[in-house]
Amino acid sequence: MSVLQGSQVDGDLFAPVDSQRKHAAPPLPLFGQGCAHPQLPLHISGTVVTVLSGPINDPIYPLPYAMAFLDGDSVLSPSRRQGFQAFDWTWHPTFHGIPKIFGPPVGQELILQSGIIQSRYGFAVQFELSLPTNLSSKSRISFPTPEECANVGEEHHLYGFRKHRIGYSDGSIWLVYSLAQQAGCTSHLNLQRLRPPIWVIQELGLVSSNLVKMSDHYGRQLEENSHRESEEFVYDHGIGVWTHAATLRSGPMGSGQYSFDWITGGPRCNSVAPLMFALPHHTEALSDPTIVVKPEIRMQSRVTGVMRLCRAARWLFKENVADLRRYGIKPDYLPNGPPLYDALKIDLLRQVMVKEIDTDFDAESDLDSYYFSGKKLAKQALQCLTASSILQDRDLAGKFVEKTKKSFDKFCRNRSKAAPLVYENTWKGIISSSILRTGNRNDDFGNGVYNDHHFHYAYFIHTAAVLVYHDHSYLHSIRDYVHDLIRDVNNSDQSDPYFPLFRNFDWFLGHSLATGLDTNIDGKNQESCSEDANVKVWAEVTQNPRLGALADLQLSLFKRSVNHYYFMQEANTNAPACFKGNRVPGILFENKADYTTFFSNEKDAIHMIQVIPITPITSFIRSPEFIWQEWINTGSPTENTRQVCQIATKLANGYQTLLLTQYGIVDPNYVYNIFVKKLWMGQEIPLDDGLSLSWILGFLINQIELNKSEEKNGC
């Protein structure tokens, strides 16, 4: 479950996007009516979507566990696998000798049963959702499921404890702590063999039953055990307190500080700090590393490395937001003033831009897809920046700006070829109305069911920022439109009744999730980690320091997490050694990494999707060290592996052009010369639909000067 599901936020950074329009309803002339829903906005990156709308057997993933509701048996099933040995037998077909998929299986090691729970609604009510139910309160099992768990256990009004130790022949152990629901209750837990190798722990109400030692031919021992090993001792002393949720609290603006203040329950919640497992990027950023239990208790997560057990009511983190000061909307930042570009390079760039200005911007961007229209608009915005910042031609830049504004205005007025946007009042957000007309949840990549909103709308936000940067008077006519898009994907005001907090950004994982209302047995996913980094530039041009500080914090956290889980350098220990040769996971689910995309199995597509769009912030997210390793070390050096460097330099499609362009962060002269040679030979350079030739050249020309400056300053 997301940290924000049922939680609170507090601190300087969490306020309305626009203080002048606090709690403003999305204008109905622009966003049509949806169906009524009485609840406050729900966060779709948590477990609620799976519980309410997914197939009833789909698991949820409170790390490091998996839990599932098994319909026929009316049971809740927590499951975990310990250590990398799980990966030894979950490899899927190889991609040029390197495993293509890894992840632990969704197995059942332990089942908890309460006979009163008969349906999905019986399950859902335990997550404190307002659903009709006539369940008796005398017999129930309730599961608080924050996204990170030290234990998964029954919640009762507790007075006493019983402990059961279940040992497996593979060395893994389950500790089961049973707690009486009320004073004087004689209820016990009964061990029942459902089928090898699964055991059921069943609540028996007021029936007296003794737990006895037993075993099966698998060698599993199930017994009460008072033996205190070091890890067991920690759990014993941590029992009786659990977390329901957390308050996400920010530090002062510009400090880079934030914290999870855990909201706890249980009979010992006022005297004992909760035990919770932390991901690798958490422990790396902790301000107080002493909260990690010593000696360390570790557990393998699903696909994001080894988690470490922490004991604290508060996790405080510090991110280095100062690194972001050099990054903004302009590409030409240099500490010693504007760069002096090579005259011959600028002349070639001018020739290219003079040709590009004759393009029909309106026809190019007015498409029936918000995703592809957004990419085209962002391409035009980068042409504006190239003309003003690199070419430094105000007249030509003005022409690009006016043509881009005309393109953008159609979307602000909801009069493009794409299905009009509407405000949907069940999950509280802005969606394409195409789904209401066709009933096809896959229209425009699932925009109507909240898939990929942070990708789709980020392109519009970036375009708007560039236009306001060039013409501040334009802000008045587009402010409300852009702010409502930001509220949809990155709302930071918990009292906003129209949009949920941070719809896509998962503060516990440290990055966004692209899945909306779709469900999958392997959980939520994201295949691109590079398309949602644009709120910062909007804050810059609108002079909103609070929003800018929030964006800096998110980007710093985002950089840390993706360099743990998406960008797999040789030193990365979060993925198995035989998988990290892929360098990127492909589609990263909660329960598996799949080296592919939803639209292609080709390597250029798999790597390109982690690059787009190339903007001034790209070099902050993608370090030169990672780009170099991805370029030459993707797989083995044999011809059959088709390394990224071998693919990109073919320039056979727009994906390869993107990959070659981003390598310019490492060696811009090399890349620039490849493109120029193509141009002088009269050969066409294939372009991705979000990329222009002028931006390629401008980006590389500027990167050449940036690298010179860094070398001169010893960076």
TrEMBL record:
<keyword id="KW-0119">Carbohydrate metabolism</keyword>
<dbReference type="InterPro" id="IPR040451">
    <property type="entry name" value="GH81_N"/>
</dbReference>
<keyword id="KW-0961">Cell wall biogenesis/degradation</keyword>
<dbReference type="GO" id="GO:0042973">
    <property type="term" value="F:glucan endo-1,3-beta-D-glucosidase activity"/>
</dbReference>
<dbReference type="InterPro" id="IPR040720">
    <property type="entry name" value="GH81_C"/>
</dbReference>
<dbReference type="InterPro" id="IPR005200">
    <property type="entry name" value="Endo-beta-glucanase"/>
</dbReference>
<keyword id="KW-0326">Glycosidase</keyword>
<feature type="domain" description="Glycosyl hydrolase family 81 C-terminal">
    <location>
        <begin position="345"/>
        <end position="697"/>
    </location>
</feature>
<dbReference type="GO" id="GO:0071555">
    <property type="term" value="P:cell wall organization"/>
</dbReference>
<protein>
    <recommendedName>
        <fullName>glucan endo-1,3-beta-D-glucosidase</fullName>
        <ecNumber>3.2.1.39</ecNumber>
    </recommendedName>
</protein>
<dbReference type="GO" id="GO:0000272">
    <property type="term" value="P:polysaccharide catabolic process"/>
</dbReference>
<feature type="domain" description="Glycosyl hydrolase family 81 N-terminal">
    <location>
        <begin position="158"/>
        <end position="321"/>
    </location>
</feature>
<dbReference type="Pfam" id="PF17652">
    <property type="entry name" value="Glyco_hydro81C"/>
</dbReference>
<dbReference type="GO" id="GO:0052861">
    <property type="term" value="F:endo-1,3(4)-beta-glucanase activity"/>
</dbReference>
<keyword id="KW-0378">Hydrolase</keyword>
<comment type="similarity">
    <text>Belongs to the glycosyl hydrolase 81 family.</text>
</comment>
<keyword id="KW-0624">Polysaccharide degradation</keyword>
<dbReference type="Pfam" id="PF03639">
    <property type="entry name" value="Glyco_hydro_81"/>
</dbReference>
